Amino acid sequence: MTLLDISQLTLDLPDGTRLLDGVSLTVAAGETVGLVGESGSGKSLTARSVLGLLPSGAVTTGSLRLDGLSVLDATAGQVLELRRSRASMIFQDPRAGINPMRTIGDHLTEGLRLCQRMPNGEAQAAALSLLESVGLPRPAEHLRQYPHELSGGMLQRVMIAGALTSSPHLLICDEPTTALDVTTQAGIIAVLAEQRAARGMGMLFITHDLNLAASICDRVVVLSAGRVVEQGDAREVFLHPHAEYTQRLLAATPTLSRPRERVVAAPSDAPATLAPPAVLAPPAADAMLSVRSLSKEYHRRGKEPVAAVVEASFEIPRGGALGVVGESGSGKSTLARMIVGLERADAGDIRIADRERTAARTRAERLAHARSVQMVFQDPYLSLDPRITAGHAIEDALRLHDSRGTADARARVLALLDQVGLGERHAQAQPRTLSGGQRQRVAIARALAIEPDVLVMDEATSALDVSVQAQVLAVVERIRRERGLTVLFISHDLAVVRRVCEQTVVMKTGAIVERGRTEEILDAPQHPYTRLLIDSVPRPEWEGERSATP
Amino acid sequence: MTAARRVAGKLGALLLTLLLASMLVFFSRFLVPGDPVSFLLRGRKPSAEAVAQVSAQYGLDLPPWQQYLNWLVGVLHGDFGRSLQYRQDVSVVIGERLPITLGLVVMAGTMIAVIGLAAGIVAAVNRGRLMDRAVLIGLTVLGAIPSFVGSIVLIAVFAVQLGWFPSFGSGDGGFVDTLYHLVLPSIALAIVFVVLVSKVTRSSMVDQLGREHVEVATSRGLTRSAVIRRHVLRNSIGPILTVSGVLVAGLLVASAIVEAAFGLSGIGSLLVQSVDRLDFPVVQAIVLLVVTAFVVVNAVIDVLEPWVDPRSAAGAGAR
């Protein structure tokens, strides 16, 4: 039985921008359909239009039927009825999606109390049993807690329970695990699959993660620029993609089991092929970055101190790349911040190019520290000043460290932009007019402006689409090859680390639990935590077959 | 338990603040030109004996530190000293005028809360539309009117032209008559603050309207009014309360101008007059009163914060 039937749906903004262009897809009861695509492909918008959550003034054509109700022609009352009993949605970031000023109990029961007119006691009982069914440990206690008292994974379970309060026929999941750690993701996916099976719901699962889609969906719909480019049986689409876009997307997606494949980057001005990283590392014995017994504790009033980093030691040879992997809270970002001098270590020392860099006190020391190590941050939307042009941002970094003339500095800026595959017109651009990948490349150019010895990349590609990520990684690889740059690459994504780094350390609650060659760690993990991390990465059951097919 | 300790901590900080404020208020007298003894002896030929006698009578011959302690002990017993101009206890002089100012401030405060919130909510809910623009333009125009100009316009229109309200004084002392007399002054006092409160309300609500939790609530089938009430307005209270706390001092100070315009004898006009006549004990008492009101209101808002935003109780880390 077809539950959701979208046919030739188009959506135009009042200014004439076409965001959806003839989207057609169906979801049957009990079926999981994956909606896959990169940011801006219209996948979230398609999902929101099912619930009537459209941008104001949007004009739609085509048809969208849910349970026989035509959503596009529905009255306001019918839309409320639809949201209250037919379909509900799980959003990406539970931290943002649950009102921080109301209790978990209120979040779960408000729909029941206000929409279904259920008495408070009954609503509480219903919320309690739902919290139990999504696997939360202490439901009665959680009902009285506020969102900030729960972890992200627990909150996403609360969000799922909240979406299930109305017993919907269709559950829409909009990137429900993107904001979560990989081990947490595995638990959430299990809960979703279990609930879908128990309730016979249809599920529309939106994700940018092809491996995730492949591992849980029956069918997938691939969306690009508001159009469906391919749809069909999940296995078929992944093993034998027909559309060129799908092929490119699959090729750009790093996976754990395919280490050294050719990367075909999406349309880009960056080189499309990555050489295997092992070739890059010059056989250098001297350590460029050396960290010994580094520790940091955070003290919060009235609470136990938190050991963010415990006795961390490692070395990166000149021109090498070290991956640091671990989940949120493992201390990897604190480690990076200490190395670039944003935090002061409690104990231990940091040596860069054989110079002590642990404590910079004077302005001159801080500048010297900054010269030796630079950082690229996770979110290029936040790390570039929105009021300063890209070229100016790089020029500022240059001038802080160098008293060179304006013309000279401008020429250097262009050379740097050229290095990351951008040109003069990008130098004049405000950050908001650049795409995410272009911004991150500007951030890299700025970090490289003063020719640091070490580049620290803290989840620098996590916020980017896979094709853009491939471009950025290609830029980093080329610069490493050309300039022998030493890189500390922090990521939660094991597959990306595999592509970039020869050596890897695994961190758990502040301590390094395993270290060694990346391939050895990923292929034959020794520590149980590393094994857990690797096992949690979603992969389709037929994954082995793909490497066999040309 | 932790809540009790927190409140106790705030109370300690409050008392310390008040003590420091009292020192500032008292010793500032020694910084301004003018000598209370010469005011007391005005019109007479100041002989050395007369100066010494008056100084001793008012305790002005003691070292400043001693004078402060005497004053502080008095203040703690409710004795603010004697007014130099009225030759009466300061507490009596202020006590006569305080009800007018309090009435004015309470009435204006009510108007600010009701009209300011309403205008802010209407603008935020209709953001980007004609209604929002109209409210914003109206607020900007009103906000540009200084309260003395506003007072004159109100008197000209509602008292002189239409004759609906009295233009002068506070009436015969009856409760209803006093309220009636305070309507125009309260409006004159409230205007600028209504603008501030509604602008904060609007921007705070607009910020919340864009949040994902609002979309989640909408997607669950809640009506728009329930979403606005339970998620948008509820979450906007924090900034509104913070700004309101800061406004209290401004309200008390601005009342001086309005009282003068409407011929009300409240503590605002008393303050201006006492500064003019170097009546230090009265000035000190009024300033201390305003400071106390300000500090206490803001301390109460501080104490309320964990109830307004549960995250603040967990410390900065919880965001």
TrEMBL record, chain A:
Family matches, as Pfam families: ABC_tran (PF00005), oligo_HPY (PF08352)
ATP-binding recorded as keyword: yes
Domain of life, source organism: Bacteria
Entry keywords, A to Z: ATP-binding, Nucleotide-binding, Transport
GO molecular function terms attached to this record: ATP binding; ATP hydrolysis activity
Positions of the ABC transporter domain: 1-250, 289-534
Family classification: Belongs to the ABC transporter superfamily.
Name of the protein: ABC transporter ATP-binding protein
Source organism of this protein record: Orlajensenia leifsoniae
UniProtKB/TrEMBL annotation, chain B:
Residues in ABC transmembrane type-1 domain copies: 98-301
Family: Belongs to the binding-protein-dependent transport system permease family.
Protein location: Cell membrane
Keywords of the record: Cell membrane, Membrane, Transmembrane, Transmembrane helix, Transport
Gene3D superfamilies: MetI-like (1.10.3720.10)
InterPro entries: BPD_transp_1_N, MetI-like, MetI-like_sf
Regions that span the bilayer: 12-32, 100-123, 135-159, 179-197, 239-262, 282-301
Main location: membrane
Entry's Gene Ontology cellular component terms: plasma membrane
UniProt cross-references to PANTHER family, sorted A to Z: DIPEPTIDE TRANSPORT SYSTEM PERMEASE PROTEIN DPPB-RELATED
Protein's name according to its UniProt entry: ABC transporter permease
Transport as UniProt keyword: yes
UniProt GO BP: transmembrane transport
Membrane-topology annotation of the record: Multi-pass membrane protein
Domain of life (superkingdom): Bacteria
